Amino acid sequence: MTSLVASAAPDSARRPTSRELFLGFLRLGMISFGGALPLSRRMLVEREGWLNGEEFAELLGLCQFLPGGNIINMSVAVGTRFRGPKGGLAALLGLITVPGMVVILLGVIYDHFRDNIYVEHLFAGLAAAASGLMIAMGVKVAKPLFRDKPAMAMACLPLLYGMVGLTLMSAALVVWRQRK
User: Fold this and answer.
1) Both 40 and 92 in a single domain?
2) pTM of the full structure
3) Do the Cβ atoms of 10 and 82 come closer than 8 Å?
4) Based on the domain organization, do 103 and 86 belong to the same domain?
5) How many domains does the chain have?
6) What is the pLDDT of residues 146-159, one digit of tens each?
7) pLDDT for 2
């Protein structure tokens, strides 16, 4: 029994080189700061054809189960699937190079201008854009699951538990702060 990550790519999929993996995930990292998962599906399934929709959904499920960021896990899994550890490293480095530099730059800007209201609004706008991208990706990934009720339940239950838990924690924190 082979794992989804280690299995060979199907004959219909184009097998990217390590360089193509690096450049593909580099482009993804450059254009998707704060919301790479929706764009990763577009790149891997629709544009490059390295995975089909079902393979992407299965791999995403595995990546969500593993510790760490989903898109980080996805880059390593896709790279490893096609080119072994070298491909996994190439995809990972491609994905994190530009966002890593951007995060450092944003940290310097924020540290220098932290009391500026425009900087606060900039960061609030970034958070809103990332939320919108995640919702769009969720809808695209969920479409194939609508036909499979058990799969839909498995996909939604962890989200539901997380949302309820975070809502309760948030409400408790507000009450606690008001009592202080």
Assistant:
1) yes
2) 0.58
3) no
4) yes
5) 2
6) 777 777 676 666 76
7) 41
